[in-house]
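I have been asked to look over a protein record a colleague put together. This is what I was given:
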Amino acid sequence: MPATKDITEAVFQETITRAVNEVFNTMLGKKATLVPLAPGNHTASDTVDLEHPHIVGTVGFIGTINGLIYLYMDVGFAQHCAACMLGMSDTEIAEAGDETVNDAIGELTNMTVGTFKNQLADRGFPCKLTIPSILRGSHFRIEPISSATRRIYRFDIGGRPLTADLLMQHGD
C-alpha cells in the first residue's frame, strides 16, 4: 500500500485544483484559478484576511489517509455562492438567513472534498468522508497537530478569494 509521503506536492495541487474547479464550475458556473503562493510553510491566515467575518466549511476523510479540508471564504462570497446554488437573489438569501448559507456552504465543501477524496482513491488511497461542519467568525486560527502535513492553496473565483487548507496524516 502506498504511503502518504509517496504523494507529491504536484499531485496534491492538481487534485485540489481539479476538485475546486469542477465543483465551483458545475454548481456556480465559475472558474477557479489557482493563485501561486510564495515558497515556504503557510498558514491559512497568511492567505485569508481574518479581520473580517468568514465562513469556513470543513469535511474530513478517514482511511489510508486521514485529514480535513477547510474552505475559507468571506461572508459576502459565501452568501453569493449560496444564492447561485439555490437560484435565489441576494435579497432572498439575506432573508433566508445564516442557516441557509451554512447549509449551502456545507454542501459545496462536501462536494469539493468528495471530489478530492475520489481522486485520492483512484491513486490507491481509499477513504470515507465525515459530515460537513461550518465555522463562522473572524480573528481565529486553525492549528494542526504536529504529525499532520499541511498544504495551503488559494484560488480566485470570479474575483473572489477562496483558500483551501488541507491537513493530512497517514491513516489505516
